[in-house]
Amino acid sequence: MKAKSLISISDLSSDDIPSLIDTAIQLKGKRTSSVLAGKVLALLFEKPSLRTKVSLDVAMYQLGGHAIYVGEKEVGLGEREPVADVARVLSRYVDAIAARTFSHESVKELAEHATIPVINALSDREHPCQALADLLTIYENKGKLKKINLAYIGDGNNVASSLLLASAMVGMNISIASPRGYWVNAVIEYEARSFGEASGSKISLTDDPQVAVKGADVVYTDVWASMGHEDEAVQRQSVFSDYQVNKRLLSFAKSDAIIMHDLPAHYGEEVEVGVLDSAQSVVFDQAENRLHTQKAVLVKLLTG
């Protein structure tokens, strides 16, 4: 891999992503391995988690290694102990750190001071592990990534940001529909457009969900109020009321479009009740693929 850590999806090269997808597919067909025997991963989490925590723990176990969970109360990043000191100490104990933090600056600082690989397991800016699982899921269902039309409907959050960068890097067209004031970070957009110029990816940001979904091969949504924005939940329900992925909106997409959501879902809000249970939904394949793509990242970082 281009970088020793995975903090942003842009830490990967255009060759890294297909290589990781290939590795994930290989590992998906082989439940257990001893490739990471004796290796230890620290799960350094400030936020609650189901998919991220369990998939990383199981990934290490199935690869022959071990994971240690370190919660917020045990560390207190930047409060009980400086982030830099946590990075230096853990570098003496374990072989890699997967950090799930409120602040992107925390995971960046961990990587700056650690002498071992650091994986961004979610920050307020990006969710690269999710984006890799999403690409694998799309590839499995559509047979390719380049020129696939992806529509993302909702908040321009960390998931949207990593998905935008990843799409631009692999030549997948992406249209993001968000209310004005909730668009993806301008720096992320600029970086993605730069990648898109090289890959041929077409990028569109709009406030019209129907425009975004028209002709889409993939329709993706996420919660309107991510962790850290719970106090805005009521306000956002009003702002995002026209951004629900429902049967009417899906009628503008291709008839064989797949539906994606990184979960957990708030049924009746960002997605109509029943939509994620339809034949078009691949959300649980998508959740499973977190395990396989994270295995691929761990193998590349710890053996590459």
Number of helix segments?
A: 12
Total strands: the figure is: 9
Largest sheet: 5 strands, parallel
CATH-defined topology of the largest domain: Rossmann fold
Strand order of the largest sheet: 7-6-5-8-9
- CATH evolutionary superfamily of the largest domain: Aspartate/ornithine carbamoyltransferase
Poorly predicted ranges (pLDDT <50, ≥5 residues)?
Answer: none
Gap from first CA to last CA = 7 Å
Supply the CATH class of the largest domain.
Alpha Beta
Give helix and strand order, one letter per element, not per position: HEHEHHEHEHEHEHEHEHHEH
Which structural class should the secondary elements be placed in?
Answer: alpha/beta
Q: How many individual domains? A: 2
Q: What is the CATH architecture term of the largest domain?
A: 3-Layer(aba) Sandwich
Portion in beta strands: 5-15%
Mind telling me the C-alpha Rg?
19 Å
On the 0 to 100 scale, the average pLDDT is: 96
Shape: globular
Helix content: 40-55%
Report on the architecture of this protein.
With 304 residues, this protein is α/β, with parallel strands linked by helices. It has two domains: 95 residues, 3-Layer(aba) Sandwich (Rossmann fold); 158 residues, Rossmann fold, CATH 3.40.50. The protein is built from twelve helices and nine strands. The model has no long low-confidence stretch (mean pLDDT 96).
List keywords for this structure.
304 residues; 2 domains; Rossmann fold; 4-stranded parallel beta sheet; alpha/beta; 12 helices; 13% strand; 9 strands; 5-stranded parallel beta sheet
